[in-house]
Amino acid sequence: MAQEKMAVTRQTFDEVILPVYAPAQFVPVKGKGSRIWDQQGKDYIDFSGGIAVTALGHCHPALVETLKSQGETLWHTSNVFTNEPALRLASKLIAATFAERVFFANSGAEANEAAFKLARYYASKRHSPYKSKIIAFHNAFHGRTLFTVSVGGQPKYSDGFGPKPADIVHVPFNDLDAVKAVIDDHTCAIVVEPIQGEGGVVPATQAFMQGLRELCDRHQALLVLDEVQSGMGRSGKLFAHEHYGVTPDILTTAKALGGGFPVSAMLTSNEIASTMAPGVHGTTYGGNPLACAVAETALDIINTPEVLNGVDVRRERFVSALQALDARYDLFTEIRGKGLLIGAALKPQHAGKARDILQAAAEAGVMILTAGTDVIRLVPSLIITPEEIDEGMARFAQAVESVLAH
Ligand SMILES: *Cc1c(COP(=O)(O)O)cnc(C)c1O
């Protein structure tokens, strides 16, 4: 018999959790579709999607059904044994993309860690152990392991943790000449988000993405695309690189892959994968049956014209509501991003107010995100209803009004 649950509140967080987060003042306890309820029963429209994770909203019936049935069948075996859900999910990811081989992990950072290790390993096996330079971009975000914060382009996330992995060079995003100036035959990979997420919701330009592909080919370097945030339908295509007609050598995806269940994947070609052998890399949980079963159902639903074509329709509804707000309050320099990865950059006179707006939004009953100090970020469910968008945007307007009134 389960014991009665102890009472916990937001205050408990400050007493028991490592202080690396500053969560909102309310504690969500229940979700359905794009609505969340807190401990006091107050409801919120969710435009934050668990940071671009709950792409099918909260407690989608098909995901719940899969979780229940797999939960009563087989949870975990480790990679000493393979399992049916992982083999099915890998096969479907391969059928849907450029890839021929899949490695499963549990988070975006782990998928990227695997990608960066693979890029270096491949170069050392096929070319030379000195071909280890990784080119990455200012404001990029690739996760929180030591390697991934080092490839990420925000020193505040990597400083203070001792010596960093070497031979990583950062240049400005969307600046092809800057890449040309540092790339050479010792470069093993260029690592890039097709749409920088945490860095402010900034899409790569067409010329930049195409140029990176050409530079990689010229220098026998691998193009590694971090689609942890931009992938799984977020941009309106299954993966954002499809908008550019540019094919990566390695791609990582996580966030929405499991619709809220932790799972990530690294995708690559047979040729690149063939340099790896048993024992070279691995993880205990990666590709576990429970995670892969849920992700398979999420992929089945997301990778349909119905869901993917609905993304831009929903984007337009968000953008026109944001434009109406802008017309009234002169708020934004730009509304950018692709699909339902939406960034609204605040005008200089509102600089630094993104966090205040986020807090006011929670009070008004809508959950949003920021990206840096000056960008409002919305990454809602890909199947959010028009009514939920309208209600959430009305609450958001109230929040903006209350911040500007102060
Ligand atoms: C969130 C994110 C990561 C890190 O994913 P975790 O699951 O938090 O490790 C990596 N890259 C990008 C682009 C992300 O948005």
Tell me what the structure shows.
The mean pLDDT is 97. The protein has 406 residues and is of the alpha/beta class. The protein has helices at 10-16, 49-52, 61-71, 84-96, 108-126, 146-151, 176-182, 206-218, 270-273, 289-302, 305-329, 354-364, 386-404, and strands at 28-32, 35-38, 43-46, 101-105, 133-137, 168-171, 187-192, 195-196, 202-203, 222-226, 250-253, 264-268, 332-338, 341-346, 366-367, 369-370, 375-378. It has two domains: 10-60 and 305-404, Aspartate Aminotransferase, domain 1; 74-302, Type I PLP-dependent aspartate aminotransferase-like (Major domain) (Aspartate Aminotransferase, domain 2, 3-Layer(aba) Sandwich), CATH 3.40.640. The strands form four sheets. A seven-stranded mixed beta sheet has the order 4-12-11-10-7-5-6, with helices on both faces. The radius of gyration is 21 Å and the shape is globular. Bound molecules: pyridoxal-5'-phosphate (PLP). The modification N6-(pyridoxal phosphate)lysine is found at residue 255.
